[in-house]
Amino acid sequence: MTKLSVNLNKIALLRNQRDIGIPSVTEAAEIVIQSGANGITVHPRPDERHIRYSDVYELAEMLTVEFNIEGNPFTGRYMDIVSDVKPDQATLVPDLPDANTSDHGWDLKADKQSVAPIIKKLKNLGIRVSLFMNPEIDGIKMAKDIGADRVELYTEPYARAFRTNQELENVLDRYITAAGAASDCELGLNSGHDLNLKNLGKFCSEVSGILEVSIGHALIADALKMGLRDTVKAYLEVLSAV
To answer: I want to staple 116 with a disulfide (CB 3.0 to 4.6 A). Which of 107, 146, 171, 186 is the partner?
Structure first.
């Protein structure tokens, strides 16, 4: 069964609107874990507009499931904090500091010389390294060549095609092919971005080998209607049915 890692960024974003600590990121993490999720994901950005660096340390102290820290290793304090915390997984994302959200994968033709030493450093610390990638065969092969353990397929194009019902099967074919390339390279395969209760099942049933999905925005939005416990369980039910 594909594992579910819940991204808590939107909990932190709401918390940051008032300086009273509500809602609590750690309490949300406890609920998510009690509800059966397999991991917690955070993406601390340099401006700390949602997850703060202090949240990362607090989560590291209490988590009993996998901890995945996303971020750009060339901006802010990402490398320092990951080196301190030593999470189970570091997902390297090429977003700019002012990006609204991650919107593309690495271009390793341009970036592999700078990314490779980062991967080596993190792996020497015992951290599994995943690269946020577009569903492109050449990029996935290069991710393997420079030492990545996994790739996380950027799934917004799939989510958009599913939502608009335009070119859905053609877009899915790109992910199926990319997954095959990852398998051939013996790379682990994660996925994330705009996955939700409606589109998650089809994606994981048709794209083979997905080890983990990281879901935040849609899951937290669903929790406003369903409650956080029931929402996590609903996502797990979708994954268990694949």
So the answer is: 146
Which range (31-35, 98-102, 168-172, 213-217) has the least confidence?
Answer: 98-102
- CA distances from residue 186 to 73, 108, 138, 227 in whole angstroms, order as listed: 24, 18, 14, 38
- 219-237 as b/e: b if 16+ CB within 10 A: bbebbeeeebeebbebbbe
Chosen CATH of 3-240 out of 3.20.20.70, 3.20.20.30, 3.30.70.1230, 1.10.10.10:
3.20.20.70
The first and second tokens of residue 213, run together, are 């999905």
Task: Judge whether 193 counts as a catalytic residue.
Answer: yes
- How many C-beta atoms surround the C-beta of residue 136 within 10 A? 17
How many residues does the structure list for the chain? 242
Q: Which two tokens stand for residue 68?
A: 């995945």
Query: Catalytic annotation on 104?
Result: no
How far apart are the C-alpha atoms of 230 and 242, rounded to whole Å?
19
SS3 content of the chain, % helix, strand, coil (to 5): 50, 15, 35
Using the 8-state DSSP alphabet, how is residue 206 labeled?
Answer: H
Q: Tell me which of 50, 70, 152, 212 is the catalytic residue.
A: 70
Among 53, 51, 47, 46, which residue's Cα sits nearest to residue 29? 51
pTM of the predicted structure, to 2 decimals? 0.96
**Domains of the chain: which residue ranges?**
3-240
Catalytic, 70? Answer yes
How many whole angstroms separate alpha carbon 96 and alpha carbon 89? 21
pLDDT at res. 100: 67
**What letter would DSSP give residue 33?**
H
Question: Which of 27, 30, 167, 193 does the annotation list as catalytic?
Answer: 193
**Residue from 43, 50, 152, 212 carrying the catalytic annotation:** 43
